[in-house]
Amino acid sequence: EVSDLKAEDLAKAFEDSGVAAIIVTDIGRDGMKAGVNVELTASLANAVTIPVIASGGVKSSQDIKALRESGAPISGSILGRALYDGDIIPSEALELATC
Length: 99
Prior knowledge:
This protein is an alpha/beta fold. It has helices spanning 7-13, 38-47, 61-69, 81-84, 90-98, and strands at 22-25, 52-55, 74-77. The chain has a three-stranded parallel β-sheet. β1, α2 (38-47) and β2 (52-55) form a beta-alpha-beta unit. α3 packs parallel to α5 (90-98). The radius of gyration is 13 Å and the shape is globular. The model has no long low-confidence stretch (mean pLDDT 87).
């Protein structure tokens, strides 16, 4: 269903509920290796104090770099299909995430 509730408003509603983290998944990109939605993930990470984890569409280590370079406090990323398919080398992704 389509909702009028914005993702940022929903995330803010969980600020004081004890949520450990929010996983941000662009379902249009999930499993497609079309590139992570940096703008959406960064926007949510900047809107709340809850740790935000990027998910959906990661295709290469460059997506990890783009998340870091967004300047937003993004706590991590889920590397699904790209990792499984061998498109991401874990040590390279970790290095880019922590530079």
